[in-house]
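call fold(seq) -> C-alpha cells
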Amino acid sequence: MSAQPSRPGVSAVAVGASAGGVEALIRLLSALPADWPAALLVVLHLPRDRPSLLVDLFAPRCALRVVEAIDKEPIVPGTAYIAPPDYHFLVEAGEAGEPPHAALSVDDFVQYSRPSIDVLFESAADVFGPRLAGVILTGANDDGAAGLRAVRRAGGVGLVQDPDEAHASAMPIASRDAGADFVLPLAGIVHWLQSQHEAVSP
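ret:
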C-alpha cells in the first residue's frame, strides 16, 4: 500500500459507514467544493423504522448538493446521494448518452443491512469500473469488505479509514484485510478526494 495516494479520473466515489459514521461523513462531505467533479454515493447504516434526517444534517454544512437518493434519478457530478432507510441503493447504467441513475430495492438484507454497502459498491463497480473509488469509514460489522473487493476487481481504487482512529474499527479492519489500495486517516482520505478536483482544474 502506497503512502502517496493519487489517482485522477474518478467519476464517482462510493462511501460506506456505520457506527460513528455521521461525524466522519460531516468531515468528509464538508471538505469538498461545489464543483467537485465526481458524484458521491453514500450508504450509512440507519434505523429502518424512522425517516432519515441526514440530508437536513449534512446539507447546511456542505458546498456540495446533498440529496436523498430517489429511484431512477440521474447521478451527476457535484452531488452527494444518500441512501434512504430500509432500501438498498444501487447504480444502474443509463441509456446511450444518458448518465447512470439511482435504483432503490427492498431485496433481502445483506450483511444484516438494508441499505447494504456491499450492494452499492458492487453495482457501482459494474457501471463505473476503473472510474470508481470506494471508501470504507468507521463501522462495527463486515459490510463493505466484499464490495471493496468488487471495486478493485473492476479496476477502481479502494480506500479505508485507519482502524486505529475510527470510532468503530471492525468494518475498516475487515475491508483492509479484504484488500485496499490505501489505509489512511480520515484527513488523508479527504486530501485524496480533494486531489480529484485538483486533477481536473485548469
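Residues 118 and 147 are 4 Å apart (CA to CA).
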